[in-house]
């Protein structure tokens, strides 16, 4: 029976539109089944697979794999972990339920299966969301509705893809959490983000402490005094004022800026233009 509590979960996707009405279970040769190319999970824990394989040797596969037929083979829709463990257990055949699903449903089901078991690593989840958005043109709100997640969750997970490579490695290794990573993203610049991530790890900060450290880092940057013009800058400004006999201001930002001259009448403007050596057709 479909459990409504899952909302847009796996059961919702496996509605009568996609599950054969007769629900006939088949047994297929394990070598005639291939993995899901859209599987968001890239790493399978070997120890966990071995434990499942031992259980399968004793109990068999209690829940059939979901597959779809692609040409002469069957492609996994859900249950790749069971399939891998069954191969380790030496099974020659496995129970399956054949579905008729398109690529979009295939990706959605594979993603939701992993999300419901909380098996995906953070960046695997982020990339799965990005692939669905890029391939099918979903907005974040539409994707959230499709898979039963909050839009803010989708947005935050997608932001993880903006982390510096070093911080991504720290997230993948478990040195920092998703909450830490979001705090890191709140500061500007890759260097500052890497610095904050190192401080989080070295100090063993909680997420709340990391958020506080990020706010302090941003405030320190905002309070940093603007460098005052040097002597050469002041000399240049004075020479310009003496030459053009008017008020001259230079405002700079990094390597760019503005040079402004004041004039007080049309004749004064023409005088400045002549001093600049600009010829205007009469």
Q: Classify the helix fraction into a percent range.
A: 40-55%
CATH fold label of the largest domain: Conserved hypothetical protein from pyrococcus furiosus pfu- 392566-001, ParB domain
Distance from N terminus to C terminus (CA atoms, Å) equals 89 Å
The value of Rg in angstroms is 31 Å
**CATH architecture annotation of the largest domain:** Alpha-Beta Complex
Return the string of H and E elements: HEEHEEHEHHHHHHHHHEEH
Protein name: HTH cro/C1-type domain-containing protein
GO molecular function: DNA binding
Domain HTH cro/C1-type: 130-159
Keywords: Chromosome partition, DNA-binding
Structural summary, described in words:
By secondary structure, the protein is α/β, with parallel strands linked by helices. The chain folds into three domains: 4-119, Conserved hypothetical protein from pyrococcus furiosus pfu- 392566-001, ParB domain; 163-223, no CATH class; 231-275, no CATH class. 52% of the residues lie in helices and 13% in strands. The chain is built from 13 helices and seven strands. The strands form two sheets. The chain has a five-stranded mixed β-sheet. A two-stranded antiparallel sheet has the order 6-7. Helix 4 (103-117) runs antiparallel to helix 5 (122-136). The longest helix is centred in the last third of the chain and has 17 residues, at 207-223. It comes from Candidatus Schekmanbacteria bacterium RBG_13_48_7. Belongs to the ParB family.
Q: Could you name the key traits of this structure?
A:
single chain; 282 residues; alpha/beta; Conserved hypothetical protein from pyrococcus furiosus pfu- 392566-001, ParB domain; 3 domains; two-stranded antiparallel ribbon; 13 helices; 7 strands; 52% helix; disordered N terminus; Cro/C1-type_HTH; ParB/Sulfiredoxin_sf; ParB_N; DNA binding; chromosome partition
């Amino acid at each position: 029976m479909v459990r409504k509590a899952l909302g847009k979960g796996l059961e919702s996707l496996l509605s009568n539109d996609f599950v054969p009405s007769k629900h006939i279970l088949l047994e297929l040769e394990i070598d005639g089944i291939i993995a899901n190319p859209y599987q968001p999970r890239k790493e399978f824990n070997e120890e966990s697979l071995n434990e499942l394989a031992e259980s399968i040797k004793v109990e068999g596969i209690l829940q059939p794999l979901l597959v779809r037929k692609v040409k002469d083979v069957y492609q996994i829709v859900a249950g790749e972990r069971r399939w891998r463990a069954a191969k380790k257990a030496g099974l020659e055949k496995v129970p399956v339920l054949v579905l008729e699903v398109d690529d979009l449903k295939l990706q959605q089901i594979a993603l939701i299966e992993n999300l419901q078991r909380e098996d995906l690593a953070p960046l695997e989840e982020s990339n799965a969301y990005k692939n669905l958005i890029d391939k099918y043109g979903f907005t974040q709100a539409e994707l959230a509705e499709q898979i039963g997640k909050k839009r803010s969750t989708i947005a935050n997970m997608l932001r993880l893809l903006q982390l510096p490579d070093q911080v991504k490695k720290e997230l993948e290794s478990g040195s920092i959490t998703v909450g830490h990573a979001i705090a890191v993203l709140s500061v500007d610049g890759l260097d500052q983000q890497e610095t904050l991530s190192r401080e989080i790890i070295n100090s063993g900060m909680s997420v709340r402490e990391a958020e506080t450290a990020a706010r302090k880092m941003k405030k320190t940057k905002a309070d940093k005094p603007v460098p005052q013009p040097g002597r050469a800058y002041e000399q240049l400004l004075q020479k310009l004022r003496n030459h053009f006999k008017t008020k001259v201001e230079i405002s700079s930002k990094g390597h760019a800026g503005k040079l402004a001259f004041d004039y007080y009448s049309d004749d004064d403007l023409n005088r400045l233009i002549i001093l600049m050596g600009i010829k205007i057709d009469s």
